[in-house]
Design brief:
alpha+beta; 5-stranded antiparallel sheet; single chain; two-stranded antiparallel ribbon; flat; about 150 residues
Length: about 150
């Protein structure tokens, strides 16, 4: 049993627990020697080699997934203004990297590319809605009078 509240030092609410039962089972064995045989030119490409490459690809992405923002196979730094820009209308542009391992003839290649992504930045719903309406109407945000109650 894993109690997530106990790990965080949080007192659980009355009648609610954050305990989970986790069961790990072996689902298969990845033979990395067959990948080496393929790279040495001793065997043909098949599904076992594809499984080994897929395992290496997942292994490559393990550490970045824990430390960076992961969008598909691309990684973006958290809380940095250097690689981010607010575009207005609650839209943010980010610069990051894409990485994967590929089989290229009889060798493995590590592919790393610079990528750009746009996403909605975190903002209050009413502020995002107002910004979108202002941008659609063509008026300047400074000319709008916002009355909050």
């Amino acid at each position: 049993m894993i109690d997530l509240d106990a790990e965080r030092g949080i007192t659980p609410r009355d009648g609610h627990t954050n305990s989970h039962r986790v069961k790990l089972r072996r689902t298969g064995i990845i033979n990395m020697q067959i990948l080496q045989s393929y790279l040495d030119g001793k065997c043909e490409f098949d599904t076992k080699i594809l499984e080994a490459i897929n395992f290496l690809d997942h292994l490559l992405r393990e550490t970045p997934s824990a430390n960076l923002i992961n969008i598909k196979r691309s990684y973006f730094a958290r809380n940095t203004t250097k690689d981010r820009a607010l575009l207005g209308g609650a839209v943010e542009a980010m610069k990051g990297v894409y990485q994967s391992i590929r089989a290229a003839q009889v060798l493995l290649s590590l592919l790393v590319k610079l990528v750009f992504a746009n996403k909605f930045s975190s903002a209050r719903l009413w502020w995002s809605t107002l910004t979108c309406l202002i941008l659609r109407s063509g008026t300047s945000p400074r000319s709008c009078n916002l009355v909050t109650k």
